[in-house]
Amino acid sequence: MSQIRLFVTTNETGAGLVLNGLSEMLGEAPYALATMEIDEKANVWEASVYLDESEEDILSGVFAGVLEGLFPDQTPSVEKEVIPEIDWIAKSLEGLKPVRAGRFLVHGSHDGDKVRPGDLAIEIDAGQAFGTGHHGTTMGCLEMIDAVLKSSKPLNALDLGTGTGVLAMAVRKLRHIPVLATDIDPVAVRVARWNARRNDIVGGIDFVTAPGFHHSAFKLYGPFDLIIANILARPLMKLAPGLKNTLAAGGTVILSGILAEQRYKVLAAYNAQGLCHVHTVWRDGWVTLLLKR
Questions:
Q1: Which CATH topology does 3-83 take?
Q2: According to its UniProt record, where is this protein located (predicted)?
């Protein structure tokens, strides 16, 4: 079945609003959302949702409704692009360059020769789980992990929504402490476990499929001195009470997957749980937050 992209052309602020609106409207439905800069000088951006062609009628109506709510005076039109059938994993590898974030170098298997002495190298190929290091959220988390572990000595860590496992591996490469890495997607958990093995991490990280904080693994390994959650703003806000209850006294939290304009909503949710804001990293329209209990 053909894949299509429904998109709208606007400016950077508008694209962020559309992405946020679609995220709230679609909730946790499995649709890929994205923004893309088309013309830097003219401030032209696109906000997109990717879907199967059979879902076009439903999603185009949802998209149009979001736009009408955001731009009632001059509603932009929803455009459509048919996605050609391409091996996107192979294609993405062609353009993925090694990424440096703090002391980390995240690279694909095709760029192993780019590792320099002193690099904390993590090999990740594009695949079925999120987190190759190229997205602003992953970069922000890696930089924050590097900074936090330079100045503190947590006894354990939780990577909530582990994806490829890159953040759990980053913690383990810096500190030989037990790490629990969870995801609601069993495919992501399998991918993360495989990625750890290919990076010669054979112990110290327990990868678990866990849909919520009621899973026994959280009680078995917690409370946690360091919690990292690179998800999305809306689920992060819902998770605030459970995350706080899983965090050790004096513990540190790194949150990402948050658009810049969503920052204050997420902070408000965690401030209400007694967590204090320490620092923010800004990358490509996304923010990574450092909080302390």
A1: Alpha-Beta Plaits (3.30.70)
A2: Cytoplasm
Token digits for 141?
């988390």
Is 245 marked as binding a ligand?
no
Across the beta sheet with 32-39, the strand order is: 32-39, 44-52, 3-10, 79-83
For β-strands 286-292 and 224-230, DSSP reports them as: unpaired
SS3 102: coil
CA distances to 62, 112, 124, 232 from 65, in Å: 5, 46, 38, 22
Tell me the pLDDT tens digit for each residue of 217-251: 999 999 999 999 998 898 999 999 999 999 999 99
Q: Which fold has domain 133-292?
A: Rossmann fold (3.40.50)
For residue 86, the model assigns a pLDDT of 55
What proportions of the chain, in percent to the nearest 5, are helix, strand and coil? Answer: 40, 30, 30
Q: Are 249 and 293 in contact (CB under 8 A)?
A: yes
Tell me: is residue 230 an annotated ligand-binding position: yes
Annotated ligand binding at 95? The verdict is no
